[in-house]
Every structure is written in structure tokens, then in C-alpha cells.
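Exam revision sheet. Question 4 asks you to relate a sequence to its structure. Input first:
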Amino acid sequence: MKNIILISIFVAVLFLGACTSPSTQTTTQPKSTGLPLVVFSSNDFAGSGNCAICHTCLSDSANNNVSIDTHWRSTMMANASKDPIWQAKVASEVIRNPELKEVIEDKCATCHMPMAYTQANTDGLSTFILDGGFINPDNTLNKAAMDGNSCTLCHQIIDPVLGEYSIDTSTEPPDRLIYGPFEEQEQTIMMAISSYKPVFGEQVPQSVLCGTCH
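Answer key, C-alpha cells:
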């Protein structure tokens, strides 16, 4: 009899818990996992960690985490340069075709390490990936390379065409333009913190922006 009473109480507690009004329940914000985002600044680019200072801890009306950095860090774009299969493929191609080493590494870096690739071309530096190239932690553009397809690359693309992206590297901080999908933007804070000037870019939501690499 005692056991029956205890079981009845337990079931009642479970029932009451299940019937709790949704308005009284809370959603726990998921925490970002993985390595810290890359923080760096070059003449024309900045790391995803720089951008996440402001573009994180975002919630929707249901209190779900919709932070840009939380989503991006799990994508192939974020891991384009870290992918061990891709790294192995580049090394394999170079071993089999050593006479084409420069061509292979330059071509692969174009889309898998685009910030480092663009900055190197702008500054007249080598675009090698292996050995002492971008993949080497001692390389000055290593952080830019290992951040993959990051924020300040895609959001600085102008006049996108299939198979080719263009970045305006002629501008200087704080007047470097960075494009977003919103026509009305608060510019002061971002210019002060990041040295980029946010402006509307009709190319941002278009598929051709992705097509510059894909």
C-alpha cells in the first residue's frame, strides 16, 4: 500500500511538471563550442573573432540562440582551410605534380584561404600553402588563412561574377566599405570598433556571391 501511494505521488509530480504553462518555462541558451574564433587584423581584413565581439549572443522571440558566429563556426565555409581531407589533397597533388606546385597552391588558396590569398596578392607576397606557406603558424598570414571563408571576405566582395570575386583593397580605415543586406544601417559604432563602414550591398543576398567560389 505504501509503495502504491509513493508511486501515485511520483506520477502526479510528473504530470504537473508536464502541464506547466509554456510561459513559465525557460529556454537555456546553448553555448558556443569548439576553439575560440580567430582574432587578427591586416591591412584589408579582420578575423571572425573580431566580428563576434558584437555579432554574438543574439536570441529570437523564443529565446533560441541565433548568433551568427554560433552558426557560422560549424559550416564548411568556416572550416574551408582546416579540413584535413582538403589539406591532404593539396599535398597529394603537389607530390604528384611538383612542377605545378605554385599553380596548384595558388589556385586552391584562392577559395579555401581567400583572405590570406587576397592580402598576399595585394602586398606582393607568396601565395604558397604548404611548407613555409599559409598553413605554417609562423607565416604572417596564417591566422587570415586558417579563418577560412570569413566575415570580412564575403562582406567585402563587390560586383560578384561566377568563378571570381573582387575586393576593393584601395580604401583605408575607417572608410573601408563592408556590405550588408540592410538599407538603413547604424555606421558610427562599427566604424569606431572595427574600422569598417557598413553600407547596403544588393549583391549580399544573391546566389552569385556564393558563386564567386562555387
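Marking note for examiners. The CA atoms of residues 110 and 117 lie 6 Å apart.
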